[in-house]
Structures are given as C-alpha cells and as structure tokens.
Amino acid sequence: MSDDVENRLFQNRYVVDTGKPxxxxxxxxxxxxxxxxxxxVCPAGCYSQNEHGQVEIVADGCMECGTCxxxxxxxxxxxxNYPRGGFGVLFKFG
Amino acid sequence: xxKIVFDxxxxxAGPAGNSAAYTMANAGLxxxxxxxxxxxxxKNVQGAILYSDALEQMIPDFREEAPLERHIVExxxxxxxxxxxxxxxxxxxxxxxxxxNRYTIIRAQFDKWFxxxxxxxxxxxxxxxxxxxxxxxxxxxxIGVQTDREGEGYYANVVVLAEGVxxxxxxxxxxxxxxxxxxxxxxxxxxxxxxxxxxxxRFNITGDEGVVIEAMGTITEGMIGTAFLYTNRESxxxxxxxxxxxxxxxxxxxxxxxxxxxxxHPSIRGLLEGSEMKEYAAHxxxxxxxxxxxxxxxxxxxxxxxxxxxVNAVHREGSNLAMTTGRxxxxxxxxxxxxxxxxxxxxxxxxxxxxxxxxxxxxMKKYKDVPRMxxxxxxxxxxxxxxxxxxxxxxxxxxxGRDKKTKENEIVKAAWHVRGLGLLGDAVKLARAWR
Lengths: 94, 435
Prior knowledge:
The structure holds 2 protein chains of 2 kinds.
Chain A: H1 3-9, E1 13-15, E2 23-25, H2 33-41, E3 47-49, E4 55-57, H3 67-71, E5 78-80, E6 88-90
Antiparallel strand pairs in A: 1-6, 2-5, 3-4
Chain B: E1 5-6, E2 8-11, H1 15-26, E3 31-34, E4 49-51, H2 52-56, E5 70-80, E6 85-91, E7 102-104, H3 107-120, E8 124-126, E9 131-136, E10 142-147, E11 154-156, E12 159-161, H4 168-172, E13 184-193, H5 196-202, E14 209-217, E15 225-231, E16 235-243, H6 244-250, H7 255-264, H8 269-272, E17 276-286, E18 297-298, E19 301-303, H9 319-339, H10 345-348, H11 350-357, H12 359-366, H13 370-397, H14 404-419, H15 422-434
Parallel strand pairs in B: 1-11, 2-3, 2-12, 3-8, 5-14, 12-19
Antiparallel strand pairs in B: 4-7, 5-6, 5-7, 9-10, 10-11, 13-16, 13-17, 14-15, 15-16, 18-19
C-alpha cells in the first residue's frame, strides 16, 4: 500500500472485525486482468500483488464501496459481504 | 408463539430509507428500519448537496433543526485543461431567501438528524444489524428479512429495499441483476477543514452563503467522470469520480491519484491551501440512467433510492430522487395498508405510476440516451473539447497585436483540425441525447 493512501486512511475510523475479513480473494495461480486492475482501482489500496504475481487483499482499510465486487463479478475470484453489523468503516462526515 | 409482523420493514437508513420510514411511521404504520452502521449516516457518503424541495414534502420546517452547512448562492461549472479552466458562473442575491433551495450538508450529521425524526415519528430502528437475505412464503411472496443477529428474522407485510447502490440483498435474492461496471462511477472524496473566515474570504461569501464547483475535463484523463468542490461552514468537500469500467480498463492511475492531481491543479490549489484533511471516503454512484433502472416492485417488496438506480447524473442529483422515491413508495404502501390490501406485485405497481407522474421518471427518461452517448464519445467530451475551449479562450483574450478576424479563424481552424466534420456529428448527438 502506498503512503498516498495510507496517510488518508489514517484519518478514518474503523471497527475491525478481527479474524473475520468481509472480503476474500480465492486462491489462484494467475489472477485475471480484472483482479489485477484492483491493485490500482481500489480506492483504499487494499489489493496488492505478491512476488508470485498473485493478488492478495488486506481489507482493514476497506471503505465498503463495492468496486472490486463489480469489477470481478464474472471472474469468481472475490467473495464479498458487508461486515457484520457495527463493524467496518465508520464515517464521521461521510 | 406469536411472531410480530410489522406493516413494513425498511432496509437501510440513507435518504431513501429514512424518507420511506418517516412517511410510513408518520401515517401510523408499524415500521421497523434496519441499518448496518452504528448510526444512520455512519456508512453513508455523498458530496453533499441537500435539495430542500424533496425534504419539504415531508418535513416543511426542517430548516429549524436540521444540521445544514451553507445555502448555495453561487454555482460554478468548469471545463478544465491541465493549466486552467473555462467556465460558467452563476450567482444571485436572490438565493439569499427565507427558504433557500439548496444546501451543502455533512451526511453523517444530517442522516443522524433525519433518522432521529424517523424514530420520533414512531418507527423502531435497529442499528448495527446487517440484513443478509429475504424471507419468503412457499408462494415466493417476501414476508420479512434475515439478519446477522441471532434468531429467525423479522417479519412484515412489505420490505422496502433502501439498501443503496451496492445492494446485496436485492441482488442476491435475484430481484435485480449485478451492476455493470459501465453503469457505476467510483467517487473518492476528502473533507478539508479551514477556518470559517478563510472559506468566506476565498469564496467571497458571508454568513451562511455557499459556493459549489462542478468540474470536468482533463482532470479525469479522458475517462468519463466529474469532480466537485463544495463549501461547508468550516470545511470543504472535494472529490472526483469516474466510471468503474473506465478506471479498471484504462489502468492509468488510482482514484486517489486523480484526486491528488485535481487538488494540485492551479485552479483548485489556492482554494484548499493550509487545510487539514480529516476524512477520506469512497462510494459508488449509479450512473446508468433510465435504462439501468431494475425491476422496482415484486410480491412483498419495493425498491427505492440508489438501489433503484435513481440518480440524474447530468444534473448531479441523487439525494432528492432518493427522498422522493422513498416517500412515493411509502405513500403507495400507506394506501394499500389503509385499504387492507396485500402488498402484491400488482398492488405495488401503483408506485410506478406515482414515479412516472413525478419529476423523477420524467428526468430519468429525458436523459436516457446520455450514458450511451458518453460511452461512445467519452474522451471527446472529457478531453478534446475542454482543451479546445481553453485554447480558444486564450486565443481570444490574449492581446498580442494580431487582429480579431485572424483570431476567430484560428479558433475555428483549431476545432476543425481536431474534430473536422465530427464537430457537426457531436453537436447532433449531444442535442439528441439531451432532448
């Protein structure tokens, strides 16, 4: 995650549901173009590519916009649910 | 054991859900509203502009208590190139009226207030609860919702889906299809705090006056999108959004990098100077227009607001459509409730008629061809024309010893060089889509 986005997310409030991330990337050898695109499209910089080229997610900074769900809808690589009630991002201003 | 059956369950507490729940509770219906956030507004993101009329229909004296930021006296529309902007500004003292027409608001605060009115009207609101699915009877009629709380769920005669653009309940229940990347924009936004006097002097405003800037042009790097800057009392909301299909296909940069460039643009930089950024948010906006509106009613359910794709992207209106659709759905349900009629698909069809008779569907229909036109003409409109316009303005306003006729010819030649006969076609296409 770049500093660009990390500094921003630092301003936000989150209640992280520890051990229960609301988004999963299914294990894969080679990610689809759609999933790879999420590395730059995700506004919270949640996605990154590891040394083997696989795409990973750390959803702690997720703002629950749903963009990755829409982009990867046909690839089956993302399992997306809203966080449990009361968890996730908490906007002070919105 | 007797289970409680509410007259209606409202899923979500944004402008659409709050409007629906408020209207029904106010009419004496037994309403349960379910919100996944800690409070109404904690998950909600908007620019944000409040359009008085839509709220006045329900709460005529809302100005007395609602947390409002500034009423808008000046609108700036900018076509931007890399170095500057050419635009239209409209300002009038007439907007300093007793009952102003538009306000900037901060959604987390406004929604909390609106939701308080919902509770005061008698609705039960359940927070920190995510609706996970619909309950149906053997015939398929929706009879309630399942949540992530323990227990069998909650029952009602009708479920109002006000779950927002990323509405998983309706979609996973097969009530509507998945959003197409071409039909949604991803917008990112920051809240920048500045002393009130600084904002007022920078924008030439006093008291509660406010300014709105809507911008398009090279700031979205040829992608279909727009940017905005709104003045609040002690803060500035600034954001930019592009269609998801463009962002994911083009792969030029991240949304926050677009926002950084917009903030650093010579036309914007000085307005934000010295500000403190206190929040960063992202949200999808349904921009597919009329053709992207899904099925709106079924046996035991009705759909309102962003979940129903009710956004007028051309005019940057959404919250007013959300409030109006929420209210109209509620009025449809109230009528059925009073007649003792079941909320079947057929009976709820009256909602569609109410929508057709209102500004909501009339406006949605008016601009139904705009998304398609943009899909084809996107980079011309977002990049070529803003550059041409700013170039033409410079040619026209610089005094450099050349005669005006030569300058006129130069402007025409520049446009001809870039678009040729396409100019004519573009004009026709725009006129057709706008009609």
